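Q: Predict the bound structure with S-adenosylmethionine.
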Amino acid sequence: MAEEAHYLPVLACPHCGQPFRPAPHGIICPSGHSFDRAREGYVNLLPGGRLPSSSTAGDTTESLQSRRRFLHAGWYQPIAQALQSALGTHSATLLDVGCGEGWYLSQANAEQKFGLDISKRAVQMASKFMPEAQFIVGTAHRLPVLNKSCDAVFTVFAPHSHSEYLRVLRPGGRWVTVTPGPQHLHEMRPKKDSSIEERERKRSEPPSEAHHAERVTFSLSLPNDAAHDLFSMTPLRWQTAADAAPVTSVTADVWVSWGPSL
Ligand SMILES: C[S@@+](CC[C@H](N)C(=O)[O-])C[C@H]1O[C@@H](n2cnc3c(N)ncnc32)[C@H](O)[C@@H]1O
Ligand SMILES: [Zn+2]
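A: Predicted complex:
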């Protein structure tokens, strides 16, 4: 479990934005908003504590376990490497927004690691896997994180807010995103008409705020079990297509984009 002294200078109360101090079972802000630390070590800083189940639909235990097996087998190692070079050699305080089960954060180099995800199940898995990091259940759109408290912040295939990145970064800090490129897993996607393809191509460009963007493309030749895991961790809308059977030869194509703090 992360030491409180380490994570207290970073976390902010989701109700009033103030810093926390330790409380008997967790943390408390000056206005008296208190949050318990879970057995696994994470804190739930979602205002209201939890979301309606519909908002985490698709994030099943099975798909999380598939993601864990697939990532931990190293198939996306080239993405983790490009992410690390974009982050720079070392950050003191690093935040992964939309961290999922924690693999990308485990691959990064930093003194203090923070991971945030809206899915409690994902955060539970991540906390058990990386007891040295501090995980938070919370939303990317309003990070429960103090202004100018992080040296680097990143997101891989998950929602993020550029204005929140700039708010939480210290001067001299850096943000990095990994987003799908136009050919990402195209072998697994259902065939579409050209207007949908055009819309998706636009969505597959790097974020407009990026100062630099590197395109990372590689081919994967997967054994059947890894292909099945990849299939089950990808968005459901792809799986439902009749012609989207699991394929074992796939293309990974991502943008690793980055920019400075304010
Ligand atoms: C495709 S997964 C990627 C997870 C991880 N970054 C990875 O690549 O293995 C997307 C993640 O975003 C999380 N997520 C969705 N909406 C979110 C939000 N508003 N705030 C924080 N996390 C969110 C989901 O729970 C899920 O873990
Ligand atoms: Zn408060």
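A: The CA atoms of residues 11 and 145 lie 4 Å apart.
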